[in-house]
């Protein structure tokens, strides 16, 4: 019997109101996250991945608005939640680790106040003593001494602040943790330390993770499956290993070939030519056509949609429907060499 997804995003559309007209930042995006799974969204800045994350947490404010689709959490459409139901959904069922830990923490309140605020707001019957005890337990979980509750955010290092935000996000034992660029601005050693700690916590408490980043090399080590976004659309969804060693979409290959190899002789990086699409000027057909070396006539005429090309691996590309994708799918990746594969 197939397990029901914890989260199902179905044909999600998110628009931004601008002086020049509405801009569709997320266009008909669909994916599932299973219980205990780590699902990643990767892509260039501005591709819509953080917009998806904010939609799942229902954190959008004008000029952004969700214009279509469904977001089902354990079968319930969160887009229909009233304020009271939304309050119980956030932090208790789904919580967020924001991109900048320093900005996510209140600089004028001690950490004790910030932990107690979250705990007592969602558990009105919790005493101050009980809230502090729970906060001490949470700090111990992320390897910070409980005595540091008396400190202010600026008294912690960048990596410790990020662990504090993770601890607050886990305060109510959520089933889904949304991590939006959680290691940005941290050095590579601290990045790995943070992600190893998060993964150990996931194994211990069995929550699911929606992991957002533009760093594909970081993502393939951490995620079970990855969705690649370009110009507001999902262009490929596959297991991490397939994204690493046998990507299907030309954009996924371009991302992989943008990383230098760690071993062997020096190579010339291919990268991705051109600039990201202006969403006010979306062309007919494939959104990646202007930057794609494999573009052909059908790409300029017909919209692309995700289709399963291999078991568990989907892509939105006309190459495979037209029988032109075999060579591309089997080309060796610089990225795979960079990862030591």
Describe the structure.
The chain is α/β, with parallel strands linked by helices. It has 2 domains: 7-108 and 159-223, Rossmann fold (3-Layer(aba) Sandwich); 246-338, no CATH class. 32% of the residues lie in helices and 23% in strands. It has helices at 49-56, 83-89, 101-104, 111-122, 128-141, 158-169, 188-205, 216-222, 240-245, 250-256, 318-321, 326-330, 334-338; strands spanning 7-18, 21-33, 38-42, 64-73, 76-77, 94-97, 176-180, 208-213, 225-230, 233-239, 307-310, 313-315. The chain has an 8-stranded mixed β-sheet, sandwiched between helices. Mean pLDDT is 89; it is low at 327-341.
What are the SSEs and their pairings?
Layout lengths: L6 E12 L2 E13 L4 E5 L6 H8 L7 E10 L2 E2 L5 H7 L4 E4 L3 H4 L6 H12 L5 H14 L16 H12 L6 E5 L7 H18 L2 E6 L2 H7 L2 E6 L2 E7 H6 L4 H7 L50 E4 L2 E3 L2 H4 L4 H5 L3 H5 L3
Parallel strand pairs: 3-8, 3-9, 6-7, 7-8
Antiparallel strand pairs: 1-2, 1-4, 4-5, 9-10, 10-12, 11-12
Alpha carbon gyration radius? 21 Å
Order of helices and strands: EEEHEEHEHHHHEHEHEEHHEEHHH
* Proportion of residues in helical segments: 25-40%
Taken as a percent bin, the fraction of beta residues is: 15-25%
CATH architecture of the largest domain: 3-Layer(aba) Sandwich
Contiguous low-pLDDT stretches (5 residues minimum) are 327-341
Give the strand line-up of the largest sheet.
6-7-8-3-9-10-12-11
Give the end-to-end Cα distance, rounded to a whole number of Å: 35 Å
Reported for the largest beta sheet, the result is: 8 strands, mixed
- The number of strands is 12
Question: How would you sum up the global shape?
Answer: globular
Number of domains: 2
Q: What's the name of the CATH homologous superfamily of the largest domain?
A: P-loop containing nucleotide triphosphate hydrolases
* Structure annotation, total helices: 13
The CATH topology assignment of the largest domain is: Rossmann fold
Q: In the CATH hierarchy, what is the class of the largest domain?
A: Alpha Beta
